[in-house]
């Protein structure tokens, strides 16, 4: 294993992080040899505490679609911070951001804000249960909806799921939760149809990532989900936390032309600040109205100290303003295509079977002969090699989450693409067997 060079001061920060934080702020952490502490980010770059520069493809795990510290976001956040950071009450930025989501998202007639994507999916599922009066939800194997107990079912399973029983992704989840979650196979129309038909009487919602991780929906799959859920009185929830404002300004709903009942937003919608949203048809969202309590109508409690935080909403508004400019999505798609096609060519020249998955400004690099269509397909690829490839990139100055998605932003330039392809070339050579 190779190592990133780090000063003694840098190593001291890492030692303190190991002691105070268990070495990471999330469950994802690189091996110790490649661990770094970040000092700052600007545009497409991040810098570690030694001043070493990396071209960033983590981009905050997706939120920074217009780049780090974009001047418009910095200005909007500074202006709002000087006016007060939080009120637990209505503010102008929160109202305006809700209106922007309603303009952008076909399913959105009303919006509720929370602080994280995990909360957004948790509340969307609760809203669906309250509205339908039914208890169960159906999700897809490999679909990630955050870390709430309902979402952590067959999201990251390393073995095939015995459909429809989920495999919990974490210890500490009560087994009763697993009994309320059914799991189907992504892109499998027949299995999904059978499960929806058999369980329609107890199924509140089907939740999916319309682009599941980097696995595109098979032609007609989302349309069939829409048709089946409508037919059986089950709500359809699109988790657009990654795809919202990324695949298109109107997210996956615009890109794929399918309108769910509810959708969740996070990441790009708040430009790197803590805010997420649940949006949907007004009749369904009405269950969050507290004045219903005691009137015999369904009601789902939804609260949070920082909900609709005005600083985060201001960051979101500034980000969406940039994303609304002409040519933005063309540029995001073009930059990503250069990276994907460049990588495919480099791999082909070396006779390495690579699968570059994804759509729009994100992609994932897997190694194998077959293009995966679902989670078992992903498990069948050489994931150790994918992780080694990611680590080789990290070591050579690309900031990546090894084995996971690459997020592309408006800040990534053609020079970044050229430098990245040089690194890809060396990283491919290093994983050649
Ligand atoms: C599709 C999807 N849903 C939900 C989440 C959870 O969001 P958060 O990390 O803000 O809780 C994520 C996070 O990566 C995600 O990718």
From TrEMBL:
Keywords: Aminotransferase, Isomerase, Porphyrin biosynthesis, Pyridoxal phosphate, Transferase
Keyword Cell membrane appears in the UniProt entry: no
GO biological process: porphyrin-containing compound biosynthetic process
Reported cofactor(s): pyridoxal 5'-phosphate
Claim: Methyltransferase is one of the keywords in the record: no
Gene Ontology MF, one: glutamate-1-semialdehyde 2,1-aminomutase activity
Pathway: Porphyrin-containing compound metabolism; protoporphyrin-IX biosynthesis; 5-aminolevulinate from L-glutamyl-tRNA(Glu): step 2/2
Assigned EC number: 5.4.3.8
CDD domains: OAT_like
Domain of life: Bacteria
Family: Belongs to the class-III pyridoxal-phosphate-dependent aminotransferase family. HemL subfamily.
Official protein name in the record: Glutamate-1-semialdehyde 2,1-aminomutase
Species per Swiss-Prot/TrEMBL record: Thermalbibacter longus
């Amino acid at each position: 294993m190779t190592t990133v060079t780090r000063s003694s001061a840098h190593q001291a920060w890492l030692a303190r992080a190991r002691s105070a934080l268990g070495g990471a702020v999330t469950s994802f952490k690189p091996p110790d040899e490649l661990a770094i502490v970040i000092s700052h980010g600007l545009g497409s770059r991040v810098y570690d505490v030694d001043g070493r520069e990396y071209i960033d493809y983590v981009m905050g795990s997706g939120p920074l679609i217009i780049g780090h510290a974009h001047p418009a976001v910095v200005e909007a956040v500074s202006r709002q911070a000087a006016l007060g950071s939080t009120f637990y009450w209505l503010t102008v930025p929160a109202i305006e951001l809700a209106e922007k989501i309603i303009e952008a998202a076909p399913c959105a007639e009303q919006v509720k804000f929370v602080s994280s994507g995990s909360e957004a999916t948790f509340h969307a599922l609760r809203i669906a249960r309250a509205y339908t009066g039914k208890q169960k939800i159906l999700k897809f194997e490999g679909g990630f909806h955050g870390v709430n107990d309902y979402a952590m079912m067959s999201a990251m399973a390393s073995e095939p799921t015995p459909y429809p029983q989920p495999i919990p992704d974490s210890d500490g989840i009560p087994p009763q939760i697993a009994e309320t979650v059914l799991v189907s196979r992504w892109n499998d129309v027949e299995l999904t149809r059978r499960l929806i038909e058999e369980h329609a009487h107890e199924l509140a919602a089907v939740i999916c990532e319309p682009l599941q991780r980097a696995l595109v929906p098979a032609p007609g799959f989302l349309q069939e989900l829409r048709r089946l859920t409508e037919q059986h009185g089950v709500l359809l929830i699109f988790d657009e936390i990654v795809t919202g404002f990324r695949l298109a300004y109107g997210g996956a709903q615009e890109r794929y032309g399918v309108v769910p009942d509810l959708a969740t937003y996070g990441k790009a919608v708040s430009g790197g600040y803590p805010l997420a949203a649940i949006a949907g048809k007004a009749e369904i969202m009405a269950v969050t109205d507290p004045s219903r309590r005691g009137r015999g109508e369904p009601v789902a409690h939804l609260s949070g100290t920082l909900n609709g935080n005005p600083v985060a909403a201001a960051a979101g508004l500034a980000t969406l303003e940039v994303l609304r400019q002409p040519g933005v999505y063309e540029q995001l798609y073009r930059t990503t295509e250069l990276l994907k096609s460049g990588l495919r060519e480099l791999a082909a020249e070396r006779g390495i079977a690579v699968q570059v998955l994804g759509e729009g400004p994100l992609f994932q690099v897997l190694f194998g002969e077959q293009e995966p269509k679902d989670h078992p397909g992903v498990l069948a690829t050489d994931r150790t090699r994918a992780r080694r490839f990611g680590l080789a990139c990290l070591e050579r100055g690309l900031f990546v989450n090894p084995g996971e998605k690459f997020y592309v932003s408006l800040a990534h330039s053609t020079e970044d693409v050229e430098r990245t392809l040089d690194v890809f070339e060396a990283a491919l050579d290093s994983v050649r067997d």
